[in-house]
Amino acid sequence: MSDLPTPLERARSLSRDRALTEQADQHAITLESILAVLRSGRLADAAARREATEIASSALIRARSVHEQQESVLEPVAEAFSRLRTELRPLIRSGPLQVQFAEPPARGRALPGPVAREARAISRTAVLSLMDRADAARARVGWDCDGRNLLMEVRDDGGIAVTAHDDSLRPIVERVAALDGTMDVETTPGWGTTLRIEIPLDPPSAALTVEGAEELTDREKQVLRLVATGISNQRIGDQLGITANTVKYHVANLLRKYGARTRAELASIAHSHDAHSPSAQTR
């Protein structure tokens, strides 16, 4: 009898490792935020204690809640970015680094759950790295989406030259590589550093296309387009004037017709369908 782990056991182990890494990142943010408040010279002692207590209480509530989403869940890109801002707010509010956020397009393609979580972790790590270096006063964090990739940019005004081989960026490099993404580091002495990261939204092995699938009804096409935005069945039903159960029925039919397993794969199909439509080719 083989002692080697089965594919399912390996998948579960990987999922646990990711969850632990996410929790460690969250704890790091919380501790850094509390320390920044307590060290701040802009707050009186009593105000600093109140602020630190509020941060700790909020973190405790989050720790007791179920945050991890299942792999099949999509997260609208604007909502994913909003969560990042919420996670970083306590740290930025009391820390020495001024951070500007460049919002992604509100109707950009929804992100698969794992991509959204890793993108937030990458952005958090980048901001923490800047605070550790202490040579930058301002930074800009921005996300965008070209339909196939999540485009991330972190720019600072620090004077220290940085390369992708620096230890401070190693966690980011590893996360990006795990997602089959790419990262470019551009440093101009005296002007700062820019990280440009590109993460694919579709798994490399995905070979789902619109060709060969059963013909869709008009309603199924409507549901498919809305599934790609990452909204819930209830919200899809509200927009189309049908019940959530009817939406669920159409989603099940779409999964069957395309041989897809998740809503994330359906989102990929929807984008492929739009990219090959006559209207898209004439733009």
Automatic annotation (TrEMBL):
Q: Which SUPFAM superfamilies match?
A: ATPase domain of HSP90 chaperone/DNA topoisomerase II/histidine kinase, C-terminal effector domain of the bipartite response regulators
- What is this protein identified as? LuxR C-terminal-related transcriptional regulator
**What residues does the HTH luxR-type domain cover?**
209-274
Its keywords, alphabetically, are: DNA-binding, Transcription, Transcription regulation
Q: Which InterPro entries would you find in this protein's record? A: HATPase_C_sf, Sig_transdc_resp-reg_C-effctor, Tscrpt_reg_LuxR_C, WH-like_DNA-bd_sf
